[in-house]
Amino acid sequence: MFDKILRTNTFEFELIERASGSWIYDVNGKKYLDCESGMWCTNLGHNHPTIVETIKEQSSKIIHRNKGFLCPITIEAAEKLLDFITDKFDKVTFLNSGSEAVEFAINFAKKITKRKNVLSLENSYLGAFGIARDLSFTSSENEEFKLEFPVCGRNECENLDRFLQKAYKVIDKHADDIACFVLEPIMVGGGVLRPCSKFIQPICDKMKEIGALVIIDEVTTGFGRTGKKFGYELFKITPDILALGKALGNGYPVSAVVTKSDLEAKLTSSELYYAQSHQLDPLGTSIAMKVIEVFESEDILEKLKPKIVELFSFLKTLSHPSIIDARSFGFIFAIEFKEYGNNKTKELILRIKDSLLLEGVMIGFSTAKNLIRFLPPLTISDEEIKFLKQKITKVLEEIKSSELDTNPIP
Ligand SMILES: Cc1ncc(COP(=O)(O)O)c(C=O)c1O
Predict the structure, then answer these.
(1) Which residues approach ligand 1 with their CB closer than 6 A?
(2) pLDDT, tens digit, for every residue of 147-163?
(3) Predicted TM-score (pTM) of this structure
């Protein structure tokens, strides 16, 4: 059926036709609760009416223009975004994808520092191409610069010193040639892990000490996903550059790099020069601006608080012989499994994913990290949360009883 589509991914059998709020509808009219928010993008729910209206209005005026010109909406969006961020940033450019934003941020830091090495944390996912990909857990490049870190909740923070000494060794060895440290505040693709803040803070301090910059990859953690506006607020750090994407466009491909004018001032115009066809295009920037307006006017962060508690408590009550951990950070949830009965871990995860899909729930999963994942829209309703809880409970119960039928307790 998909034979004309390049196999860049494994595709589910169901064909998707439309979406609204927390729901996706297939071509047969069956609806699914989208607990991955697309690709972790639709924090405000699919096809938010205000965003759809903005797209209609802006595209009837102008979608695209030559790179030598700006539109008023782009300037307004830049001001809106800078006002929205609590820390002092005063420069922004709008791009198209998260990967592009992280890549841009790293190259910017390299040019400013005139250095070439870049640090990240192991298990980070920073992008699909270039240096951002090389620094991700999906690549075997750059291993020396992917720092091991203590994971919160695994008693590893107690061994903080061991992790710090190991990291300092790498940093000290390359101190003159480290351009920046790129931090994904919560590793989402890499296993839903939170690095210990007692580790992050000294590493960021060390960057300042050696003249390197701190870049925060907020592509997934930005715009409320962690329960804060931005994920870096989980730590006491002062970033130099932020890379934003995903929720900035609520499903539309717009991203941004945010930084400071004193850093920009270190570069000549030719060093700064960057041009791609859709950078700063008015359609994307009008959407980004409206996303921020809706985020504020609908008081998304405040309304999210009880939902975080509700789903966190539910996860903690789950008891199933195959579950080895259930964890969450803000509105990022994961359940980690081990093999169970006749099911190897990978089969079990695929079975849960498929059963939930049949029940009308789309979830994320990683057979490499042995987990299923939920990053629902932040606007998910109480009724929808109830539906999700019922379906997870049902599917886990069914797996338990089918195992008992095939392997009855003697
Ligand atoms: C933390 C993080 N950074 C960067 C990216 C890349 O963003 P995009 O897929 O929009 O290029 C992703 C994508 O999942 C991500 O999770």
Answers:
(1) 97-99, 102, 125-128, 184, 188-189, 217, 219-220, 245-246
(2) 999 999 887 778 899 99
(3) 0.96
